[in-house]
Amino acid sequence: MKAIVYQKYGSPDVLELKEVEKPVPKDDEVLVKVHAASINDWDWGLLQGTPFINRVENGFRKPRKYKILGCDIAGRIEAVGKNVKQFQPGDEVYGDLCMCGFGGFAEYVCARENVLALKPASMTFDEAAAIPQAAMLAVQGLRDIGQIQSGQKLLINGAGGGVGTFAVQLAKLEGVDDVTGVDSSGKLDMMRAMGFNHVIDYTKEDFTKNGLRYDLILDNKMSRSVFDYMRALSPNGVYVTTGGSMVRLLQALILGPLISMFSKKKIRLVILKPNKDLAYMNQLFETGKVKPVLDGPFKLSEAPEAMRYFGEGNHKGKVIITLEHNKET
Ligand SMILES: NC(=O)c1ccc[n+]([C@@H]2O[C@H](COP(=O)([O-])OP(=O)(O)OC[C@H]3O[C@@H](n4cnc5c(N)ncnc54)[C@H](OP(=O)(O)O)[C@@H]3O)[C@@H](O)[C@H]2O)c1
């Protein structure tokens, strides 16, 4: 089968389209013919071997554990291991493989059945591939960690990518009608079209210095210091971050409990629970309440270009890689 393989850390130039052995499912796994995949920040970090934690996970000098990146996939089950109960060949599924070996940038991948959900018939493979990681971070960040409430004032930082474009739709469903999105100028029109009430171009304005206060901040970038974020929170406000640099994450971990001791403001980190809320997303999708924002699609052979595009931050919503056989369905 064809796959995008990498043998050393580096820029997207180290990604190669290669012929590799088709994987064989273990007893508790299914073999999925991949129709579409999407790119996540995690793929980007593993490609480069930064931050260093990615090398602890995947090999210090070169990639050892995961040589094929790609965690969000959608496809059709081709074979099942003998202990698989939930699925059968022909089922259309999708999910995030970050806890079972990545490998999605390929024609086939094996996955444990418990990381997959059935794809609704009305959802395309491209749409399904866009959902798993970004939508889970948005749902868990806003609902489970942020405990979003109707009538709140919400700001999403890094709002034009995967998480932000799901989060604004989810926030509206929770009765939050005042949503501000912060991102670069090229994404602001798309963000307005997705339902953001206010948009801020971070290259022109620092939202932590404009005097406005928010009840809930969902941050996908950690582009400001914890103290800046605290300034932008209302007195009982909650700051939730999905991720950012290690230094900023450590700062939030250390200062969070201290800040909560001296004020009613809270700092919370999202620890992704992969695939936990896919059934909920299916429901929202099937009732027309949520729609992924797709960028691309790129062919599998164009994966290096797609990764470069993602890494440069030019994408809107989710960058999709579509396999050739997706056209046959
Ligand atoms: N907590 C967990 O367990 C977990 C698991 C997986 C991933 N994550 C994290 O979750 C986040 C995923 O976010 P995502 O998928 O939405 O990423 P994304 O698609 O890359 O979107 C991030 C957006 O932020 C914008 N941006 C860049 N610099 C900015 C700045 N200084 N201020 C405001 N916006 C800025 C980018 O656009 P421009 O570059 O054009 O500005 C981009 O549109 C990442 O931080 C990732 O590391 C967390």
Terminal-residue CA separation: 19 Å
Strand content: 25-35%
CATH superfamily of the largest domain: Medium-chain alcohol dehydrogenases, catalytic domain
The hetero molecules present are: NADP nicotinamide-adenine-dinucleotide phosphate
Mean pLDDT across all amino acids: 96
| Tally of alpha and pi helices | 10
Please indicate the count of domains.
Answer: 2
> Which oligomeric state applies?
single chain
Question: Any overview of this molecule?
Answer:
This protein is an alpha/beta fold. It folds into 2 domains: 2-131 and 292-328, Quinone Oxidoreductase, Chain A, domain 1 (Alpha-Beta Complex), CATH 3.90.180.10; 134-269, Rossmann fold, CATH 3.40.50.720. It is 28% helix and 26% strand. It has 10 helices and 15 strands. The protein has helices at residues 41-48, 53-58, 125-130, 132-145, 162-173, 188-193, 226-231, 246-262, 278-286, 303-311; strands at 2-6, 15-19, 29-38, 72-80, 92-96, 108-112, 116-118, 153-157, 178-183, 198-201, 214-219, 233-241, 266-269, 294-299, 318-322. Strands 3, 4, 5, 6, 7, 14 and 15 form a 7-stranded mixed β-sheet that branches. Strands 10-9-8-11-12-13 form a 6-stranded parallel β-sheet. Strands 1-2 form a two-stranded antiparallel ribbon. Helix 4 packs across helix 5. It is globular. The structure holds NADP nicotinamide-adenine-dinucleotide phosphate (NAP). NADP nicotinamide-adenine-dinucleotide phosphate (NAP) is lined by residues 40-42, 133-134, 137, 157-158, 160-164, 182-184, 187, 202, 220-221, 223, 242-244, 270-272, 313.
